[in-house]
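PT: before anyone asks, these are the final sequences, not the draft ones from last week. 745 residues across everything. Please model them as a single complex and drop the result in this thread when it's through.
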Amino acid sequence: MRMHVSHDTVYRYETPPSSVIQTLRLTPRNHSGQYVVSWLISISADCRLDAQDDAFGNLIHTFTAEGPIDELIVHVEGEVETEDNAGVVAGAIERFPPALFLRDTPLTQTDAAIVEFSERYRSSGANTLVMLHEMLGGLNREIVFDTNPTHTATTAAEAFALKRGVCQDLTHVFISAARHLGVPARYISGYFHRSDGVNDQEAGHAWAEAFVPSLGWVGFDATNGICTTDAHLRVAAGLDYLSAAPVRGARSGGAGENLSVRIQIDQAMQQSQE
Amino acid sequence: MPAFDEMTGTEGSVRPAYTELSGWLGEVPPDVLDYRRREAEVLFRRIGITFAVYGEADSTERLIPFDVIPRILAGSEWRLLKRGLEQRVKAINLYIKDVYGRRDILRAGIVPEDLVFQNPVFRPEMNGQKVPHDVYVHIAGVDIVRVDADTFYVLEDNARTPSGVSYMLENREIMLRLFPELFSRHRIAPVDNYPDELLATLRSVAPDSSTSEPNVVLLTPGVYNSAYYEHSFLADKLGIELVEGRDLFIKDEIVYMRTTQGPKRVDVIYRRLDDDFIDPLAFRPDSALGVPGLMSSYQAGNVTLANAVGTGIADDKAVYSYMPEIVKFFLGEEPILKNVPTWRCREEEHLAYVLDNLEQLVVKEVHGSGGYGMLIGPSADKATISEFRAKLKAAPKNFIAQPTLALSTCPTCVESGIAPRHVDLRPFVLSGRDEVRIVPGGLTRVAMKQGSLVVNSSQGGGTKDTWVLDD
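LR: through. Structure below.
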């Protein structure tokens, strides 16, 4: 699929801050099955975008905008060619052995309930892929998609207790449970093209990747209960939401921040050869 | 068997380094000693050296007891310690570079991979990150204990933000003021050059992009931190700015300090703020103490953080037990300073042994510090022991155990007169791009309670001036 993404993050301030600094993980990289055709980030303020690789191999950009700033728009636009590889992610930048992704983080820590849930899927000698698929289905039934009760700092355990949450929460629970079963798992932030024709979205997407010995990293989208397909555009990987977050920022001064996100994802028109 | 005494050994005869002091202690009338002791307390109060104890609501700040009887090391003893410390810290720097780089030590199977990767003090953010001049631990405070005339053990390698050096400096100043006659009877190596040595170390590791006069600042969490006194003391002695997170900002990957003359570039940050709090964009997002974006500047190589981020992977109590192997692996040498024999409860046989011998052992939480979360078997009651037994069984990985050491004692002024009390020693090891600098001596901590082995100031421990004889 050739996916076209247009993503605006708009901040408006009642009292303008004197400066804003942000770290963006908003640029996808190539791997087999994903080819970035074009990609551009533009910031409405006058500033320099500094690019770096983070520890996980994500491309990050940092900028400091000096104010007073009443409105700040981070605009991302690009086209990416994706293929359906049945979830298998090969050729991505790997800076760590899979074992790192067994690491606990505050957002993905298990509790008794998640342990109990994940243990249902631990079958002796069974193949990891089957186990993860069953757990993915179980989780999808267990947690209802609901944007209301959770926020970006909600932990896996809290979301699991609520039985409600958004893609971030489902992904954290999946990661937490997989790690408990000894399967390295990581957080992916990215975009998802919906097949139901709804192209306008209010948030990016998130899913998990788990390490399956015979296959390598495999994408599991707990929100949709499927492995990743060509509808998934992989942007950043990390241990949890925080280390793969599309935007992390801070401002000095200012108050009354109002954030709105507009994402449009559609299938790009195939360009004819000239 | 009584513990080895720094003054009288095990035989009871005065050791050569203490000849003068012992004679003096015999001459000085008890009321004079007591008077000087109270004078010292007044001086400390006036200077305002206090520290805060976490978890004590009634007294947020209190005075660390100071003992006027110095602890003395012969020149030969110090030279051995110094060589051992240099070796150890060199190995620690190579190890940290490796853990965040090639990971040879993990591949060689010497340090278990999960102990590193799953350790909260391992910082994935540092992976592949170059630090200026390959120095990670610029300031180490290595805790050393002694059990007999020839055996010194390293108890802990403090490689994050070790504190206590202000006491080393203040103790000496006060002793010089109160006991000039004692100093005239000894040749004691000075310690007052520590601030110069520290500043030289910090300047030596400035990034290549900085000017020949690098701007060094000291970053403190602020007045509520237990070591704030030390932060302001050191900034003053070094002649550098004492800053809080809000005094710094990042623009285009450069760190600036806000000044009345406008922004001033910062090259080296001696930070006394934990990793977790230094940058809300990279670590804890709720930290208001750090500098947003600091890691981006660090990663770009535009600023030096001393100590580097992620050095906890060297001083973690679980990693500690591998230090002799780490020294051998990176330097190809036998460690000069020994480790305390340590049982790793993560290993089944070790755990079994520990559970069978809890009454004789000291059990420590691997991520604990300051003497918290510790079991001292021989002095614990049955309830505490069974509580630890349960904790050990539930999460063996979180614990190590060591034999209860007979820490050396040193004569100390107590209510009943002069009596032996257990001591340790924390020398401060400075590693720069050019050399390793160690001011002779360090901070001697003393357990003021009879028989107590816990010297931590948070547990009622006191301090002593430490003399290294220039013999």
